[in-house]
Amino acid sequence: MSETRPRIGFVGLGIMGRPMVRNLMRAGYDVTVHDVNRAAVDELVAEGAHAGESARGVAAATDVFISMVPDSPDAEAVYGGPGGAFEAARPGWLAIDMSSISPTVARSLAERATAAGAQMLDAPVSGGDKGAIAGTLSIMVGGDAAAFERAQPILQAMGKTIVHCGGPGAGQVVKVCNQVVVALVIQAVSEGLVLGAKAGVNPERIVEVLQGGLASTRVLEMRQTNMLGGHFDPGFRVRLHLKDLANALALARDAGVVLPATALVEQQMEALKVAGRADLDHSSLITILEDLAHYSVANGAIER
Amino acid sequence: MSETRPRIGFVGLGIMGRPMVRNLMRAGYDVTVHDVNRAAVDELVAEGAHAGESARGVAAATDVFISMVPDSPDAEAVYGGPGGAFEAARPGWLAIDMSSISPTVARSLAERATAAGAQMLDAPVSGGDKGAIAGTLSIMVGGDAAAFERAQPILQAMGKTIVHCGGPGAGQVVKVCNQVVVALVIQAVSEGLVLGAKAGVNPERIVEVLQGGLASTRVLEMRQTNMLGGHFDPGFRVRLHLKDLANALALARDAGVVLPATALVEQQMEALKVAGRADLDHSSLITILEDLAHYSVANGAIER
C-alpha cells in the first residue's frame, strides 16, 4: 500500500466535519465525502471534494476513512449498519473515528475493524468549531502505535496538539475525563460567583482574585464574559455536554468508579434542558444556581 | 496623627503570623507582638520585636493593630473578649484582621470598631506559609476606601496582589468564594483522574490533555505531583479547608444562595476527617474517590 498521499474518505459533514475536510484539502489530500445532508456534500464538492453515495462507497474508494458524527448510535450506523463502512473493511484500510462517543462503543468498533484485518483509531477532539476552522483542534488518540504513526500527518492537517493516549478507546476515555473536569469547573466557578455576588461583592473583583491564585481556571478565563454578562450564545452546547456526561457516567459504571460530583452536575445540566436551555453555551450552568438564588450575577434580583 | 511610620501591633504568631511580622520588621516597621504561645513571642523579640502582655496592651501601645488567628471564635476573643483589642479602640486607631473567618463575624467586628470611632479592615490572605515567608501573599480587603489607602503600604510589606473587594466583610466573602472554587476544582480533577486511570489510561496522558485545553486549572498544575504520586504532605490542610467551607455554607444560608456542589464536596472533605486525614494536604480529596473505586491512581488496585 503506497501511501505518501492516501485517498481520504470523510463521513459526517456538520459544523465540525466541514471545516475539517477543508483543512485536509488545503493540505493537499484528495477527499471523498458523504452525509445524509446532501447540501453539505454539494457545498464541499463545489470546493473540490468527491461525492460518495454511502459510508460503504466512501470506504471502498479510499485508503483512510474518517468519521465525525454526533453520538454513539450514529457511529455504530456509519460503521456497522447496512451500507456501513465495515462492509468495505480490508487489510491495510485505516478508520479514524473523530466523533465523541462512548469508550465502550469505540472499543467494540475497533475490535470489529481488527477482525477484518483493518486498523482503527478513536480520535475525539476538543477546541470546537473555531478550532476546527483554524486547524488547531486538540486530538486525543486511542489505538495501536503503528496506526497512530500512519494517521499523524493526516491529523496534523486538522489539529495542533495530538496526544496518543493509549490503546483502543483511550482517546474516548480521556475525552470523557476532559468533559467531566470542564463541567465540574463550570459548576465550581458558578457557585463562587453566585455566592459572592449575592453577598454583595462586585463579580469583577471576585474574578480578579480567583484568577490570581490557586483557584485560577481556563474556564473562567474563557467564559467570564458570558457568565458576568448573562449572554450564553454557543460556544459548546449544553445538549452535547450532557451527552458527554452520560458517556462518563456509563464508563464509570463499567470501570467501577463512583463520581458523586459528576452525577450532581449532570443533574444540574438536565435542569438546563428542562428549562429549555439545551442549545445555550454550557457556561449557562450558572443560571440554574441563579434561579435557585433568585439572583442573577449580571442583573441582580430575579422576580417570579 | 503623624503616621509616616505607624507603630504596628500583631497578635497571632502561628505558621503565618511569624513570617508576616518578620516582613513588617524588614520593611522598617516597629512591631509589638502577642500570642498565647510564649515561645513564639520570645522568638520574635530576639529578632527585634517588642512583647505585649495582651491584645488590649498591644492595641493601646500601637497605631495599627493586625491579627492573624485560626478561626471566628479566636478573632472574636482577640477583639471583643476580656483584655481584647476593642478595649483600647479609639478614634484614629486602625485594626486589620487578616485571619480567614466568617464574613458575618467580620462585619460585626467592623461595626463595633466603627462605633468606637476607629477603622477596621478584613484582609484575609491566600498563598500559604510559602507566600507569607516570601512576602507574596494575595490579600483580599474589605472596608472603607480611606482605611484601605492607609493600610496599603503595610499590606505591601506582606503581600504582592492586594485587591480592595468592597465594604466591610467583602474580603472574607471573596476569600470564601476562592476556597469554594479551589475545593470544587480539586474534586473535578480528582473525578477525571480516577475515572481515566481505572479505565486504563496512563494518568500522565490525562494531565497532558486536560492542561492543554479548556479543562486547564492551576490546581492540577500545582498539585499533580501529589495526586499522581499519592503523597499528601501539607500544603494546605484539609482541616483548614473544611473551616472555610463551613463559612461558605453559613454565608450561603445568610445570603440566600444554594450551593449543591459545595455541600457535596464539604461532605467528601468530612469523609477525609473521618478517615484520619484532616492534616493532609487538601489534594488528598482524591483519596475518598480512590477508596470508593478501590483503586489508587498512584498504585493501582486497593484491597481491603
Could you characterize the architecture of this molecule?
Two copies of one chain form a homodimer. Chain A is α/β, with parallel strands linked by helices and 304 residues long. Chain A has two domains: 8-167, NAD(P)-binding Rossmann-like Domain (Rossmann fold), CATH 3.40.50.720; 173-301, N-(1-d-carboxylethyl)-l-norvaline Dehydrogenase, domain 2. Chain A is 52% helix and 14% strand. The first copy, chain A, has 13 helices and eleven strands. A six-stranded parallel β-sheet of chain A has the order 3-2-1-4-5-6, sandwiched between helices. In chain A, strands 7-8-9 form a three-stranded mixed β-sheet. In chain A, helix 2 links the parallel strand 2 and strand 3. The longest helix of chain A is centred in the middle third of the chain and has 29 residues, at 170-198. The radius of gyration of chain A is 21 Å and the shape is elongated. Chain A starts with 7 loop residues before the first strand and ends with a strand. The mean pLDDT of chain A is 96. At the A-B interface, strand 9, helix 8, helix 9, helix 10 and helix 11 of A face strand 9, helix 8, helix 9, helix 10 and helix 11 of B.
Task: Kindly list the characteristics that best describe this protein.
homodimer; 304 residues; alpha/beta; Rossmann fold; N-(1-d-carboxylethyl)-l-norvaline Dehydrogenase, domain 2; 2 domains; 6-stranded parallel beta sheet; 13 helices; elongated
What topology does this entry show?
Two copies of one chain form a homodimer.
Chain A: E1 8-11, H1 17-26, E2 31-34, H2 38-45, E3 50-51, H3 55-61, E4 64-67, H4 72-80, E5 94-97, H5 103-115, E6 119-122, E7 125-126, H6 128-134, E8 137-142, H7 145-156, E9 159-166, H8 170-198, H9 203-211, H10 218-229, H11 238-255, H12 260-274, H13 286-293, E10 295-296, E11 300-301
Parallel strand pairs in A: 1-2, 1-4, 2-3, 4-5, 5-6, 8-9
Antiparallel strand pairs in A: 7-8, 10-11
